[in-house]
Amino acid sequence: MTCATLPSSARDFSEHTSETSIIVAGVPGGPHFKRVTTIAWRVLVRADRLLGSDLYWGLAMGRRLAPRIASGRARAGVVGAGLLFGSLRWHRPLTLRLDAPGGPIRFVVPDYSAFKVLHEMFVLREYDFALEPPPRRILDLGANIGASVLFFRRRWPDAQIVAVEASPRLAAVLDRNVRHLAVDVHHQAVAAQSGTIEFHESEHSWAGTTAAGTGPTITVPAVALDELLDEQVDLVKVDIEGAEFDVFAAANRLDRVGSIFGEAHALPTAPETRRLLESFAGFQVSAEPAKGVFTLFSAIRDDAAAGVDERLQG
Question: How far is the C-alpha of 35 from the C-alpha of 261, rounded, in Å?
């Protein structure tokens, strides 16, 4: 197994983005205007301390995200969503108008967690690797509300995309968000074996899991990874909140996969993470800590690793 360092763009936001760069990035005007803007940001920081809110980071993420996913007046909606969700007092879904290959789409963002996922996809660009040739078939495990699906559709417009989501609540949002993106959506949990499995919903959209959880428990359909690998898959993305350890341990068809990108819900030094990464025989594996408790990893077949090496050096 070869270990390397993931691109800095995939590192935790707070680790590689300084306060100063957020304050001045993209601000028009001269030094006086920037000084006023700096004061405004400091006011937000103080407000957050007094109110227990997250306005500073919500606005910062919105400002960085808006030009990457929206055009014209729709960008103001993205920035406004960051402020509303950052208040930590807004608990209703927001609908944004986002750019897509076939034209703008309406995209429902249910909560602050989902907004952060959009930031991870389009600002941190966690899955932005140069794959040659471009993937023709993509399997998105843990598609959530479709942020990664939208990223993949924009990155590789001609790819066939299969999106799998276990949460019935999020799967309904996923259906709506990707209905114009030519995506095959499966309302299933990926598990060690097919059948049914207990799923723990969460108040945060990114935290539902079939692993140990504390939220309301429901029974959902389950599908083994091998069943989804009935033909060659060029790219598998996995973010299934701890279920990945059992899922890949039971998989026997990884020889049909070209690349795997994802998140392991334990640190790189944890035994379960090490076993997971070591299971990718024949792949070039890269991994690094993320968000303090997780591991971002990529596993690229040795004969396809050249494109990724180029991305890592770029």
Answer: 41
